[in-house]
Amino acid sequence: MRGLALKIAAGYLIFTFLISAALGLSFYVVAKNYLVVQARAALRQDAQSLAQVLSGLPLEREAIEPVLFRWLATRPAERFFRSYYVVLDAGGRVVATNLEERFPPGSILPEGESPREARPPRAKARKTFLEHEFVLATAPIFPGGKVIMFSRQIALQAVRRDFLLVLFESLAWTVPLALLAAWLLARHIARPLVLLRERIHRVARREFDDPQEVHTGDEIEDLWRDFNLMVQRLAEYDRAQRLFLQNASHELKAPLMNIQGYAEGIRDGVFKGEEAAAGLEVIAGECQRLKKLVEEIIYLSRMETPGEAFHFEDLDLAALVRQAAETLQPLARERGVSLEVHAPPRVPVRGDREKLLRLVMNLAENALRYAKSRVQFEVGVHPGAVSLVCRDDGEGFLPQEIPRIFERFYKGPRGSTGLGLAIVRAVAEGHGGSVEARNSPQGGAELEVCLPRPEGR
Question: Mean of the per-residue pLDDT values for the chain?
């Protein structure tokens, strides 16, 4: 998990760095454009102000210098950069300037070096003046002449560098803080996963107790909740398998001991004549019982195996119930019980014929063991479902029996293998249905199976 924490921390740090770099670059570009636009606007305002002051005056140095001094005295304080002015007469001669070492008064600027208003910041090239880039603005003086206000680009670049220096100093503090935040975040994310790994190892050792809960308010908490649900079902399955093995061993042990006892008695001459014949009948009966028990164990195990194939086809549930009742009529007559079927002419379902027939036979055989005089099948059609109710007139279920009636190897007083109703539940659930046990209001026990009804039927 250390690798995961490192990856999270590194990813967070890289993300923070990229965002900071993108913001810094964006700020640099925006600041550059902003400063140029602001400088040009300020220079244009100053040029217009000075041109208005000089309008109507003779453009001679002696005449305008006092005006220039007063204008400079009343001019607002300069902004982030220093600006310069040049006053030209109608012939392009320098009358006055505050940069005389570059533009001596009385000189005429060369055509190629005459300052012109710079192009917008997005232009591919910028006019230069005496090998320096300028941001400038001009304003005409009435009746002739003009004022040129300008500032060196290098001054604006110095301001941008100061801004970038502040940004880099901020990054110097941001990176350690981001690293600390990344480490804490990685720890916060990785900790529940470390606990999950430890829990998985315990489950692998079949230690299902001591469930843990993690409250993170995100998908990791959902993962933990689903994992705990899986562990709970694994624990239930593990307990069921152990109980199944214990019950199966117990159920197999009794007939095997009977077979062994009678076989040894016959072998050693303890049972002779009629007793030996009776012993052989007991052995044959116990073998038959073992055979049925093993068959039902195998059948139930196959039913509860994930991926067990169900061969679905269009069936008539009413016909299946009548077929099962016809098959069991001899057994019902032998026990003095009437076996009745109440069903519509046809009840369509989608199901596996062999498994549904086994379900109906198991219900009937169970009811025949406890019925006094009558077993009744009732098939019904409902919105979205069909039902099959098997009802007898016996003593009914004891209240404590109902929650366990479908458990494997749970047997009532006259039970056989204890697997018949477990098979009923497995078949019903395999068809997307359910089964319920209850006592009938008229007396006796009721078992109701509900199956999905085919769409459009």
Answer: 78
